[in-house]
Amino acid sequence: MTMALETVLAKAGLRIDPAEFLGLVEDAARRLSPPATDPADYFSPAQRDVLAEVGLDLTPRRPDEVDSRARAVAADAVLHDSALTVGDAAGVVGVDTSRIRHRLAAGRLAGWKDRGGWRLPAWQFVSGGVLPGLETVLAAVPDDQPPLVVAAFMTTPQADLRLEERPATPREWLLAGGSAEKVAALAATLGTPA
């Protein structure tokens, strides 16, 4: 298994020891949700009745059913592994580490505090700087949205952002010179019902 995992990590461009990566996966699984949860446990009896009336299935996962958390756990592990430290980000942007911390505090860069200090998602950086329009987009992201949701939004094609007749990710759109305000308008809806 270790050899296969090393191969997968190498193909994905992730420079990490397989055992460390598996530790990230375990941490992500623990953070994202407890194992073997019964969906009905999250609701009162009255709420369960209403949800059942509208057709929501609250039955527990079958033992042979794939765990729906697996994709999110893997994405979270990759997000954490590929994130930059403050020092790494300062090197990319070409500024002192104090400037990176200042941008984090002002919401001009996205990041989270981890055991070893601040971690900054790689999607927001380009060679020699930050993604064009980043400040405009980050200002629109609702405060309650976790880094994984923001990363998924920035790296998932959006129907409203089109490059050469195909949906583009917000990151691709901004790199191509697209309007930051258009991405910000989409970002502002994160966490709201569709």
Provide an overview of this structure:
The structure is a single chain. The protein starts with a helix and ends in a 7-residue tail after the last helix. Strand 2 (112-114) and strand 3 (117-120) form a beta hairpin. With 194 residues, the chain is mainly alpha-helical. The chain folds into two domains: 2-78, no CATH class; 131-194, no CATH class. 20% of the residues are buried. It has helices spanning 2-11, 18-32, 45-53, 70-82, 86-93, 97-105, 134-140, 147-154, 170-175, 180-187; strands at residues 84-85, 112-114, 117-120, 125-126, 129-130, 158-163, 166-168. It contains ten helices and seven strands. Helix 2 (18-32) packs across helix 4 (70-82) and helix 5 (86-93) packs across helix 6 (97-105). Helices cover 48% and strands 11% of the residues.
Keywords:
single chain, 194 residues, mainly alpha, 2 domains, three-stranded antiparallel beta sheet, two-stranded antiparallel ribbon, DNA binding, DNA-binding, DNA-binding protein
What is this structure's SSE topology?
Layout: H1 2-11, H2 18-32, H3 45-53, H4 70-82, E1 84-85, H5 86-93, H6 97-105, E2 112-114, E3 117-120, E4 125-126, E5 129-130, H7 134-140, H8 147-154, E6 158-163, E7 166-168, H9 170-175, H10 180-187
Antiparallel strand pairs: 1-3, 2-3, 4-5, 6-7
